[in-house]
């Protein structure tokens, strides 16, 4: 019997997956939240909608660059070995790189034309932070990689806010701070679940350096302040729906983080990872409902 592994042909979903669409959609949602949380006079929905699309495309280009640049590392990790570049089903040649850059340029151009230069700048900086600062400069060098990389989500919030008004209000700035603090415990929770991959490939993710138990404490140290800061936009005029989402999401993420400290297992880490996603969804949904739906009724 032959031991040869035959690679299956790639389908449309595989090609689309190169751009990490689920992550791009989450980042686009943060841009929508940034727009919704920014107070303004009546504004056409088109600049906001096109900026959110631009952020989605820019995030997709950054995700594709991440897979293009890390094909060697992805091939060594169980979680990512099946990705097209990592598995060898696609060759990460210069043609792909040119296409990725073209997609980013197109996205930034959409934001500039539809909204303004600040929205375009923040759209670009979000992609640049993830693709270059995090992927190329920091990921394989320092445990602070994901802390700095967390700015990618913060820039998305600012891009959405700038589509409403280039003069950022305290609500948008606070939400960008929340995203900055949210990303490390979100990702470290996943890193605990797959810590062996990072250990064996000498990637300095925090759990691989200090152990899962100590990392769980660091996660909790991030979760508490971000959950408190997430409440502050209510002081600046966000309504009860936003406040309820922020309270519920923060309480849930904090509770699962405490459980992770008590039981720093892979199962609890995945539960904390999912709780972080739910917190973000509740927070952003509350911003959209309060900022637009309730506001339009009232």
Key traits:
Tetracycline Repressor, domain 2, 298 residues, single chain, mainly alpha, 2 domains, globular, disordered N terminus, 76% helix
Compute the CA-based radius of gyration. 20 Å
Give a count of the beta strands, DSSP E runs of length 2 or more. 0
Could you name the CATH homologous superfamily of the largest domain?
A: UbiA prenyltransferase
Order of helices and strands: HHHHHHHHHHHHHHH
Tally of alpha and pi helices: 15
By oligomeric state, this entry counts as single chain
- The average pLDDT is 90
Percent in strands: under 5%
**What's the CATH class label of the largest domain?**
Mainly Alpha
Strand count, sense and barrel status of the largest sheet are:
none
Low-confidence spans: pLDDT under 50, at least 5 residues?
Answer: 1-8
Give the name of the CATH architecture of the largest domain. Orthogonal Bundle
Structural class from helices and strands?
A: mainly alpha
Into which percent range does the helicity of residues fall?
Answer: over 70%
Tertiary shape: globular
Q: Which fold name is given in CATH as the topology of the largest domain?
A: Tetracycline Repressor, domain 2
Q: How many individual domains?
A: 2
> What distance separates the N and C termini?
72 Å
């Amino acid at each position: 019997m032959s031991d040869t592994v035959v690679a299956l042909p790639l389908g449309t979903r595989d090609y689309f997956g190169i751009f990490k669409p689920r992550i791009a959609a989450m980042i686009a949602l943060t841009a929508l939240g940034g727009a919704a949380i920014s107070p303004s006079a009546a504004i056409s929905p088109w600049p906001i909608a096109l900026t959110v699309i631009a952020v989605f495309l820019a995030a997709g280009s950054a995700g594709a660059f991440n897979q293009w640049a890390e094909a060697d590392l992805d091939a060594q990790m169980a979680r990512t070995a099946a990705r097209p570049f990592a598995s060898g089903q696609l060759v990460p040649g210069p043609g792909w790189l040119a296409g990725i850059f073209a997609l980013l340029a197109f996205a930034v151009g959409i934001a500039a034309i539809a909204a303004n230069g600040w929205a375009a700048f923040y759209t670009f900086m979000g992609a640049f932070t993830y693709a270059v600062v995090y992927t190329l400069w920091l990921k394989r060098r320092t445990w602070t990689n994901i802390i700095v990389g967390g700015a990618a989500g913060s820039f998305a919030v600012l891009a959405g806010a700038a589509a409403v008004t280039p003069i950022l209000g305290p609500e948008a700035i606070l939400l960008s701070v929340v995203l900055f603090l949210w990303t490390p415990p979100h990702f470290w929770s996943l890193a605990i679940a797959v810590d062996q991959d990072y250990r064996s490939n000498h990637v300095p993710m925090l759990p691989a350096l200090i152990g899962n138990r100590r990392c769980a404490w660091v996660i909790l140290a991030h979760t508490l302040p971000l959950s408190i800061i997430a409440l502050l936009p209510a002081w600046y005029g966000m309504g009860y729906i936003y406040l309820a989402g922020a309270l519920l999401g923060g309480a849930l993420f904090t509770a699962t983080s405490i459980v992770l400290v008590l039981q720093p297992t892979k199962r609890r880490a995945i539960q904390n990872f999912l709780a972080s996603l739910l917190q973000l969804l509740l927070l952003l949904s509350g911003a959209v409902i309060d900022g637009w739906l309730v506001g339009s009724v009232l």
